[in-house]
Write a structure and sequence with these properties.
The complex is a heterodimer of chains A (258) and B (385). Chain A is of the alpha/beta class. Chain A is built from 9 helices and 12 strands. The longest helix of chain A is centred in the last third of the chain and has 17 residues. Chain B is an all-alpha fold and 385 residues long. Chain B has a single domain, classed as Orthogonal Bundle (ABC transporter involved in vitamin B12 uptake, BtuC), CATH 1.10.3470. Chain B is built from 15 helices and no strands. The longest helix of chain B is centred in the N-terminal third of the chain and has 35 residues. Classes of the chains: A alpha/beta (258), B mainly alpha (385).
Chain lengths: 258, 385
């Protein structure tokens, strides 16, 4: 469960995020949408503890401010938008870093930690890749490894910042399906940001639309993804196509007058 | 995943390998015995680099002890003389009392000092590279060199007035080095910002430039001492007995312990500040501890050995080339290879043009610069930037 009350982020007198109220129920997947610069990543950073913020953030029912760094890291895991891939590091060693919040200070990993990595490797079909340097992997494989790090961390809450931004359409779907399966298997609570409105509508239980650092719309896909709302906040003309599988957002080209 | 089938096949192979080793478990959650073996094997393989480093240091120390300017002392006899000193070992080296004294009080302390300085500079370099996620970081980056240079220069040019200047130089160099890093650290957080690798590196550049400017000015005003100042800056391991070793040892010991303890932390920091924080690491504190440990040790090494370049930057890369990936391996490997490298460099410095000595900093740079160029041409080498 993630709860934000009046969360704001101000950097150098610029307000990136103001007065955001947000609630993600246990087991729910909420997706944050918004144009570039709306504050999506800032919200994720505030919740993960990477950015200083105003207001209250509660994680799994406890105020985040009161959590020690290690406790927080056992509660919430983050998959960043552009993860730093350490040069030459093998998949195994990278995944093992996810056990950091579970290790006693200055201790090394135990059999339990190795088993946690093994189980994630199995689940994400990484066995054939585990000794390879991460840099040598394709974009889709790399995204699974980065997701794997968060799973090894073994937290009830998962934050995903643009998990599919670098992937082609097939791998986008594959990663999102995987997240959805894991959410059910491990009863994870997921908060993600996403650029692709149609995909967001297909996978998330609920959508939150940010614009200018504020929540401007919230609810089911059919409530948030409307031509009027998207026109107002993205400045685009779209047609919403409803069919048996849900809704799709179809951008319309404004033909120049010649 | 490019071809789903290919990955599935890989997963199946993994299962086969496990059951082949006698494990019946096919459950993905429980660690099969085969899986545990796999981790053990991986860990043993990595420590091979450390074992190689220990052997290299031992060999270098033996060479450094065996060879010296005195032609009366045979290489074998010098080694036997040292081994004879090990408790419960009694060997006759056949050396005279005087010759034995030469080996024990001149050659050996110099070998040990070289090993300590190389050990310290290389591990500090590895620590800096990790903490700044920058493959080009070396232990002088935050102003240690410029600060020590200024401190030493000030004492040397005032040497005629005060007490014994040679005793004061290490102290002044140490103080200058510590002061420079301290200022860098303060400046690195100017404007209430978080210290980032970039802000600290830039502060280091600024502080180094300032200290170097003052040092150059002082040096120009006292041109008669330029030769002494340069001799110090180029580095030397001239010792008289075990005094310098005793002076340096506590710093190296403390710094090494701190760095080794933070090996895993450095691995975590390699995934970036934000992610390391989300893994529960206090990044700012870890960076502070590692910088303090590496800088204090470096200041000690510089105080007794002068500004010996290139050890701190190339040795960690050599250790990486030899297979050290995790900082838990890279740090001890850098210590051992760094010690070995500097002992060999010093051997070259004192024998190549005997009885004259080449400044050791010249030797390390002469060997280091071409090698460094070679490294820069290899894109595969480096740490995450």
């Amino acid at each position: 469960m993630i709860t934000c009350g009046g969360v704001g982020v101000v950097v150098d007198d610029t307000t990136l995020l103001a007065d955001v109220d947000l609630h993600v129920s246990p087991g729910e997947w909420v997706c944050v949408l918004g144009p570039n610069g709306a504050g999506k990543s800032t919200l994720i950073r505030a919740i993960s503890g990477a950015a200083d913020h105003l207001g209250e953030v509660a994680l799994a029912g406890r105020p985040a401010d009161g959590l020690r760094a290690r406790e927080r890291a056992r509660t919430v895991a983050l998959v960043p938008q552009t993860p730093v891939i350490p040069a030459g590091m093998a998949v195994d060693d990278y995944l093992l870093l996810g056990r950091t919040p579970h290790l006693r200070r200055f201790r090394t990993e135990s059999a339990e930690d190795f088993a946690a990595v093994d189980s994630v490797v199995e689940r994400l079909h990484l066995a054939a890749l585990r000794s390879r340097p991460i840099e040598s992997l394709s974009g889709g494989e790399r995204q699974r490894v980065v997701l794997g790090l968060a799973l090894v961390q073994d937290t009830p809450l998962l934050l995903l910042d643009e998990p599919t931004s670098a992937l082609d359409i097939g791998h986008q779907q594959e990663v999102l399906e995987l997240v959805d399966e894991l959410r059910v298997e491990r009863s994870l609570t997921v908060l993600s940001t996403m650029h692709d409105l149609t995909l967001a509508g297909q996978y998330a239980d609920r959508l939150v639309l940010l614009a200018g650092g504020r929540v401007v719309a919230e609810g089911a896909a059919s409530e948030v993804l409307t031509a009027e709302v998207l026109k107002a906040h993205f400045g685009v003309s779209v047609r919403i196509v409803h069919d048996d599988d849900g809704l799709s957002v179809l951008p319309l080209r404004r033909r120049p007058v010649r | 995943m490019t071809v789903p089938g290919a990955v599935r096949r890989g997963a199946a192979d993994h299962h086969d390998a496990r059951s082949g080793e006698g494990g019946e478990s096919t459950s993905p959650v429980v660690a099969a015995p085969g899986a545990a073996d796999r981790w053990d094997r991986a860990r043993l393989g990595r420590y091979g680099t450390v074992v190689a480093g220990a052997l290299a240091l031992l060999a270098a120390a033996a060479l450094g002890t065996a060879f010296g300017p005195s032609s009366q002392i045979g290489p074998g006899a010098a080694l036997i003389e040292v081994i004879d000193r090990i408790p419960w070992v009694a060997l006759d080296s056949g050396l005279t009392r005087n010759q034995a004294g030469t080996v024990w009080d001149l050659r050996l302390p110099r070998v040990v000092l070289g090993a300590l300085i190389g050990w310290m500079l290389a591990s500090a370099g590895a620590g800096y590279q990790g903490v700044f996620r920058n493959p080009l970081a070396d232990p002088y980056l935050l102003g240690v060199a410029a600060g020590a240079g200024l401190g030493a220069t000030l004492v040397i040019v005032r040497g005629q007035v005060g007490a014994d200047p040679s005793a004061m130089v290490p102290i002044a160099a140490f103080a200058g080095a510590v002061l420079a890093v301290f200022i860098t650290y303060l400046v690195g957080a100017a404007g209430d910002r978080r210290r980032t690798p970039a802000s600290l590196l830039l502060a280091g550049v600024a502080v180094s430039a300032l200290f170097t400017a003052v040092q150059t000015y002082v040096q120009q005003r006292n041109a008669s001492d330029i030769r002494i100042v340069y001799t110090w800056i180029l580095g030397r391991l001239s010792t008289a007995g075990w005094g310098e070793v005793a002076l340096l040892l506590p710093y190296v010991a403390l710094s090494s312990i701190a760095l080794l303890v933070y090996g895993r932390t450095l691995d975590v920091m390699s995934v970036g500040d934000d992610e390391a924080r989300s893994l529960g690491l206090d990044v700012d504190r870890a960076r502070l501890v590692i910088v303090i440990a590496a800088s204090l040790g470096t200041a000690g090494a510089v105080a007794v050995g002068g500004l010996i370049g290139f050890v701190g930057i190339i040795v960690p890369h050599v250790a990486r080339l030899l297979g050290a990936r995790s900082y838990r391996v890279l740090l001890p490997a850098s210590m051992l290879f760094g010690g070995a490298f500097l002992v060999l460099a010093d051997l070259l410095a004192r024998t190549a043009m005997a009885p004259a000595e080449i400044p050791i900093g010249v030797v390390t740079a002469f060997c280091g610069a071409p090698f460094f160029t070679f490294l820069l041409r290899r894109r595969s080498v480096g740490v995450a930037a």
